[in-house]
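#structure-requests
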Amino acid sequence: MFSFRNITVLLFLLFQLVGFAQSCDDEANKNNKMSEHEKHNSEAEEKIVKTVKEHGWFVALFEATKYLPSFGYTIGLWENYKHPELIVFGLRTETLHSILNIGGEIVKSGEKIIPNQKSDEFLESSEVYIFEVQKENLKDYFGYGLWFNKGEFPAYQIVWSDRNQVFPWEKDFEDIFLNKQPLIDRNADFKFREEKNLGVITMKQFLEEGKDILYVEHDDEGDWTFLTGDELSSSDARLVSLETIINTDNSINELFNLDYGEFASRASIKDKWVRGKMENE
């Protein structure tokens, strides 16, 4: 006959087994996701290698989000022709693909694309400008390129003008296109798309006590918040420029591509940022 104590022990063991099973399921789901990710990477890498071998170069394309611009870049020009890879931002992926293939054909024919000058070879109705990509910006965009080339390589950015043939750094460039193409021949010390004087929320513990930023939010409205591990109160909140945040802790520069509705956290300034989706309240 079971005693109350026997029943309690059995219930405890049952709960332990349920918890263990849930833990196993969570671990299995995590491993399955990792396996799917690894499979996707493996398939992508095989396709890149095959295309570069058969065609001379591969074009990697990335769709725009509500916050981040589309972009595409070549893989294989450096390997096959000792010519810098090419990257272009902010247009429809079909147009990006076309521009990069035109560049590939130019290189394959034996010509060189010359940096620091305009070119009329890429678009029918307007010129582009060619810049040398700052090497500090390579890792932010050329992920598969760095894998394929086993390290750094030279690259050129192809920059398009607006409908009035005005370039982004020139006066009267159309506002609608301002955030479509980051200029990665520069700005390695401040990679954010926003203006340096953008007002953001942080804490007095960061500004006045020297504590590290451990949590960053970029909400759906586009507002940025930079917090230490302390609980935020109205008396601790401070409004400062985004530039002040980056100048004080340049490791936050890595979060320039944190999308709308995302957060990043870390245990300490020595740890890597872990990103995630913010939960809707």
